UniProtKB/TrEMBL annotation:
Keyword Ribonucleoprotein: no
Record organism: Camponotus floridanus (Florida carpenter ant)
BP terms from Gene Ontology: negative regulation of transcription by RNA polymerase II
Main location: nucleus
Descriptive protein name: Zinc finger protein 865
Amino acid sequence: KKHQCEVCLKQFGQKSKLFAHQLSHSGQQPFKCLSCGKAYASKSKLNAHMRLHTKTNVHQCKVCDKIFPYPSYLEEHTKIHNKSDSDRPQSKEFECSTCNKRFQLLKNLKAHERLHTGKGLVQCEICDKKFSQNYNLKMHLRTHKMSRVHKCEYCDKRFVQKGNLVEHLRIHTKMKPFVCKLCGKRFAQSSHLKSHETSHGALRQHQCRLCGKRFKLANHLKRHLNLHTGSKMYKCNQCNQMFSQSFSLTRHLKRH
């Protein structure tokens, strides 16, 4: 079975590889080197980087002695020595005065600077996210499969289907109409009740592919994965602060 990225449509044979690839679109880099602080989107890239510190299983340039974690990186690097000065790529001479990021082209710097100033940005009409270039907005729009026309009157969150909005509203109204017959625990959504019912005597069959920790419920594993990716899905409707887990948001709301 092929797993397809909804942003760039690239396909992967394994779901774990798709998960690692999706981090490249979000810009998240949860894997950090303890030696120099450099961060990476995947654990494999961090492991390759660590070899540069330990100098084990690395590939060294015979011209300038620079080392690389992969032979393909070294091969690409040696092309620089083989080129004439006129053929070499331009240096990144245009620097952002706010964050010091550098660019080869002035137009790319100007587009980047709009992210800091907020001027001339293009905005997604569905989720209000802003972008510096139309191309980035176009790629982002692929993540929205359908228009979210049903809007929550409490927190402005939008939904594709009205039924999803009705379920969401119970978060604000505190209504929990679904009751577990075994322990009496109440839930706002029927799907949460069904997931809970399987936890009675269930084995921890859902395993995290990053750290090996196991969970009884798939949604518990999904919540745990947010700790690895740094994803913050839960938003406070009073101060807009974001949280990676729902219980952190609940605890935060008690402070308001």
